[in-house]
Amino acid sequence: MLKNYWEVFLKTKIHFIFAETKHAIMFDFDQYLGFLAFLTILTIGFWLMIFLVSIIPYWIGGALIESIKLKREAKKNEKK
Questions:
Q1: pLDDT tens, N- to C-terminus, the chain (80 residues)
Q2: Would you call 26 exposed, middle or buried from its count of C-beta atoms within 10 A (0-12, 13-18, 19+)?
Q3: For residues 40 and 76, what is the distance between their CA atoms, to the nearest angstrom?
Q4: The pTM is what?
Q5: Among 24, 35, 50, 61, which is least packed, fewest CB within 10 Å?
Q6: Which residues are within 8 A (CB) of 27 and not within 5 positions of it... i.e. 6 or more apart?
């Protein structure tokens, strides 16, 4: 008889543990929206970083080449 009470106790204890764990994992709707907003901002930031890392060196390089060409042209005009 004692064994049956112990088995019932263990089963209900395990059931409560799983029930609490299952409930704790789920989001409320506002938490879900906050999580989606966080992922959206994170994704936008990532792609903005990739864009800036790829565009800024190209932009600086082009400006440097253009300034070198202008200086060479100014030297040629001085010699003439």
A1: 556 766 666 666 555 555 555 555 677 888 899 999 999 999 999 999 999 999 999 999 999 999 999 999 999 888 87
A2: exposed
A3: 54
A4: 0.49
A5: 24
A6: 35
Write out the chain in H/E/C secondary structure: CHHHHHHHHHHHHHHHHHHHHHHHHCCCHHHHHHHHHHHHHHHHHHHHHHHHHHHHHHHHHHHHHHHHHHHHHHHHHHHC
Length of the chain: 80
Q: How far apart are CA 75 and CA 77, in angstroms?
A: 5
